[in-house]
Amino acid sequence: MTASPLKLRLTLAERARAGFVSTLRKQIFDGLASSLRADYQRNVASRLAPRVDAESVRQAMRHRDSFKFYSSLRVTSQDLLYQVVRPAIERQRADFATAVRDLASDPRAPATLVLKEGFKVPRSVSALDIHLMPGSYVEEYGEDDPTMGAVYENRLALSTFGVFGPELDDIGQSIARFIALKYPKFRPRRILDLGCTAGHNTAAWRQVFGKAEVIGIDVAAPCLRYAAARAAARGLELRFEQMNAESLDYPDASFDLVISSMFLHEVPPRAIPRVLREAHRVLRPGGLMLHMELPPADQLSAYDSFYLDWDGHYNNEPYYRSFRAMNLPKLCESAGFSAADYVQHVVPSWTALGARRWREAACEADYAVDSGQTGRLASGVRWFCFGGWKSFASGKTR
Ligand SMILES: C[S@@+](CC[C@H](N)C(=O)[O-])C[C@H]1O[C@@H](n2cnc3c(N)ncnc32)[C@H](O)[C@@H]1O
User: Fold this and answer.
1) Selecting from 3.10.310.40, 3.40.50.150, 3.90.660.10, 2.80.10.50, what CATH number does the domain 1-398 have?
2) What confidence tier does 393 reach under pLDDT thresholds 50, 70, 90?
3) How far is the CA of 170 from the centre of ligand 1 (A)?
4) How confident is the model at residue 368 (pLDDT cuts 50, 70, 90)?
């Protein structure tokens, strides 16, 4: 899962529990999810009015045994994720903090960490336990403490039951390779990753675009400490800075590529336009902004929207549904990107297919967004991403 010195040392009993939770998650997201869909198609769909939406599907499904069983197992499995990883992390907390201190005091360390004294974390991150994660991303248990980064990584490994790959970077690997394949003339020299958390996907962009300088920013100090120590343990040259994506410290036109993954749906709707305007500002003309996200409601069937919205109702994800309700081309336009320069792609999973099959799949015509696999945690997932090219005053290169 992780390279030393951050590797979590589980007891035999904890390993057994971890295996159980991971298998349970796979059963829920692959098997039970299919049964839920089958129940809807067989017993509910025909009863709903022709103008059905995600909320009417939820109202029709929420008292059915299939939905109650699925939901109670999902909530329980979410709690179990933390119960399984927390004791081992607490035992190793001092070692993790030492790894962070070693990084800070080693001038030859490949990764760099920049935290800011008195930094103000937005309440949207600090005021609730996002996806039921006790402590959210920001709880600190002492000096140099990276606990919440460790919790995020180790719980992600269990919760995604192999779909994110051994380095938990399938989103970054798949989308970075796709961009390199699709736009071969586009060779970004400076890349900025917004809301990078523990830096899994930040690292993938560094690997694919080997010559680029890659910087990850986040508001959460414990996650950034962990990200930097994790990158250093892998010999990856990455820079992590504490910063709010709503007001970046970088000058205008200082990046070729601004990316994010699974970030915008955790940002309040009033702040999203500010984040996109900042992305536009720091991009050079000819540069690209690209966000991997949940597919929007207006591009999915009512059933698939209902399925994805589950987290917004039951998993402490307060901005999930408001994000999914946004019109993405309009959002990019309001941030300064021209309508003609809007891009969106549905990208096959590198981990699921392996190098040869992935290349074949990625070279095919774009997948439809509404495929039942887009943005859905399950075996065979495909990643949705959207954004825009920043125009030159005259024309573009790509
Ligand atoms: C779901 S996580 C992102 C996961 C990560 N990008 C990955 O690929 O593994 C959301 C992250 O966004 C960060 N965040 C939330 N609001 C932010 C803001 N305004 N500026 C920067 N980071 C923010 C949180 O601290 C959290 O680490």
Assistant:
1) 3.40.50.150
2) low
3) 17
4) confident
Sign of CA dihedral 318, 166, 349, 19: negative
Give the pLDDT confidence of 78-116 residue by residue, as tens digits: 999 999 999 999 999 999 999 899 988 888 999 999 999
Cα gap 228→239, rounded to integer Å: 7
Q: Is 381 in the pocket of ligand 1 (CB under 6 A)?
A: no
Tell me whether residue 174 is exposed, middle or buried, using C-beta atoms within 10 angstroms of its C-beta: 0 to 12, 13 to 18, 19 or more: buried
Q: How far is the CA of 364 from the centre of ligand 1 (A)?
A: 32
Rounded mean pLDDT, 262-276: 98
In angstroms, the CA 369 to CA 298 distance is: 10
* Helix (H) / strand (E) containing 288: strand 283-293
Please give the number of the atom of ligand 1 that sits closest to the Cα of 223.
Answer: 27
288 with 318: CB under 8 angstroms? no
List own/partner pairs for 81-85 with CB under 8 A and 24 or more apart: 81/21, 81/155, 81/158, 81/159, 82/132, 82/133, 82/134, 82/151, 82/155, 84/14, 84/17, 84/18, 84/21, 84/158, 85/8, 85/18, 85/150, 85/151, 85/154, 85/155, 85/158
The upper half-sphere exposure of residue 94, i.e. CA atoms within 13 Å in the direction of its Cβ, equals 1
Q: Is any atom of ligand 1 closer than 6 Å to the C-beta of 263?
A: yes
Closest CA to 229 of 89, 111, 139: 111
Model pTM score: 0.96
Phi, psi dihedral angles at 328 (to 5 degrees): -70, -45
> Which ligand 1 atom sits nearest the alpha carbon of residue 267?
16
Q: What residue segments make up the domains of the chain, in order of their start? A: 1-398
Question: Is 397's pLDDT higher than 50?
Answer: no
